[in-house]
Amino acid sequence: MKRKDKRSICPLSCTLDLLGDKWTLLVIRDLFAGKSHFKEFLESPERIATNILTDRLNHLLGHELVERRPSTRIPGRRAYRLTHKGESLRPVLQAIADWGLAHIAGTKMHIQPQR
To answer: Which pLDDT does position 6 carry in this prediction?
Structure first.
């Protein structure tokens, strides 16, 4: 994130600018759960629209949280995977999920993150 793109130098504000929309962390969640192909992300229960998914994946690519490589499962296709920087979000997502489980009635883990 370039300096001119920041609202302030507050690390919480800057992190929210990068991850704080309603879809980005769900795409990252799905990557942790082993999804890597565009169609797999579309199958998530939240039903992200294709244009929004494309935008979020490009956003994550641009901030080096995700990389795109040739698929090892589907010839001729591209697959996404978290970079080391993206992987470092695992405890953040786990903490958010744990909070939701503890404080929001009716929530449950429907996707088990791969390790």
So the answer is: 79
Domains of the chain with CATH codes: 10-103 (1.10.10.10)
Query: What is the C-alpha separation between 37 and 8, in angstroms, rounded?
Result: 35
- 59-90 burial code (b ≥16 CB/10 A, e <16): bbeeeebbeeeeeeeeeeeebbebeeebeebe
Looking from the CA of 55 toward its CB, the CA atoms found within 13 Å total 11
Instruction: Find the angle CA(17)-CA(32)-CA(73) to the nearest 5 degrees.
Output: 120
Ordered mean pLDDT values, 10 residues apiece, the chain (115 residues): 73 93 97 96 96 98 97 94 98 95 90 60
CA–CA distance, 5 with 24 (Å, rounded to integer): 18
Would you mind telling me the total number of residues written for the chain in this entry?
Answer: 115
- The reported pLDDT for the residue numbered 48 is 97
